Amino acid sequence: MTTAAAEIRYLHESHPQGTETYQIAPGILWARLPLPFRLNHVNVWLLRDADGWTIIDTGADTADARAVWEALFTGPLADARVNRLVATHGHTDHVGLSGWLTERAGDVPFVSTLGEWMSAQVRIWDAQSKSATDGAQRFLTAHGCDDDTLASYRADRERTHALLGPLPITLTRLRDGDTIRFGERDWEVIVAGGHAIEHASFWCAEDRILIAGDQILSRISPMIGVFPAMPEADPLADYLASLPRFKALPADALVLPSHGLPFYGLHARADQLARHHELRLDDLGRLMDRPRVAMELARGLFARAVAEGQGRLALAETLAHANYLVGRGRAVRTKAPDGRILYGRAEEPDSELMAAH
């Protein structure tokens, strides 16, 4: 094990390559699927049941990911049937191959929260809907995107939508607080918001293992964003509210994240993530020295990401933080005569007036 930051210890020095799997604990295998994004991989977990296997997450719908799955079916999964496919949440890199994979495994049950199954369905509809495309353009224009930016974002959305294949048409629903058994262990379902609407993590108290999904990552912060369908949403509040729930778990838990390396140091990492957002909120507040559109704020807050072509996600994250500040009275959201939406720092109350009261 190596120490990458204070109190964060990694279980392995490296990750599985290609079609390799690593055994993380008895009956739990770790595989890693390629993604055609800057974040170039997603972890999936194969858990040995008494009479078969449970698969957690799928990867995006790419030829490379399908090839890895075919190798897994003729390798470690060949000795027994697949019993179920479980999704931590409905993002493309987690359910992109869910329809194909449930059929390839023999028409097995698909297990997910209702909100995440539905949100992925909406994403498929969004890719096919002209009204959704027009709405997204109005959203981006209102937040300060120019024509070149709109064109690049449209191409990015189309490229991403192409990686989300058909979903399973039936669902076995997960709810917060449920107990589900797989991998010959009982797991408590922890449903939390922020990164996704109803993200499911899985906690095994007996072995102190947390399958964290994207809710707790070891080195990067989960993307917390606001998108056209819910322009005034406050997902950062949901995310920050989830962190104490994970800190209530034992500090020595083994955390299995969807990106990066398995690690120990759950409490330290939860504290780091909370602090990261506190600092980002402070930085954003300083940028609001006058009312500005969110894209201008994003270029100040995420200059490198915007320069590297990640502007759509930078805008989404900026809006999440801006909406959080608005919700706490630290910023105000106004609409300019030209229809653009502006964010500015809230006026501080007069200290002498406050003292007089």
Relative helix content: 25-40%
What is the strand arrangement across the widest sheet? 1-2-15-14-13-12-11-10
Return the average pLDDT rounded to an integer.
93
CATH architecture: 4-Layer Sandwich
| Largest sheet: number of strands, sense, barrel closure | 8 strands, mixed
The number of domains: 1
Name the beta content range. Answer: 15-25%
State the CATH topology.
Metallo-beta-lactamase, Chain A
Query: What is the count of helical runs?
Result: 12
Q: Quickly name the level 1 CATH class.
A: Alpha Beta
Report the order of strands and helices: EEEEEEHEHHEHHHEEEEEHEEHHHHEEH
CA-CA gap between termini: 57 Å
Q: Give the strand tally.
A: 17
Helix/strand-derived class? alpha+beta
Q: Write the CATH homologous superfamily.
A: Ribonuclease Z/Hydroxyacylglutathione hydrolase-like
Low-confidence stretches: 1-5, 349-357
Radius of gyration: 21 Å
Outline type: globular
Labels describing this entry:
single chain, 357 residues, alpha+beta, Metallo-beta-lactamase, Chain A, eight-stranded mixed β-sheet, seven-stranded mixed β-sheet, 12 helices, disordered N terminus
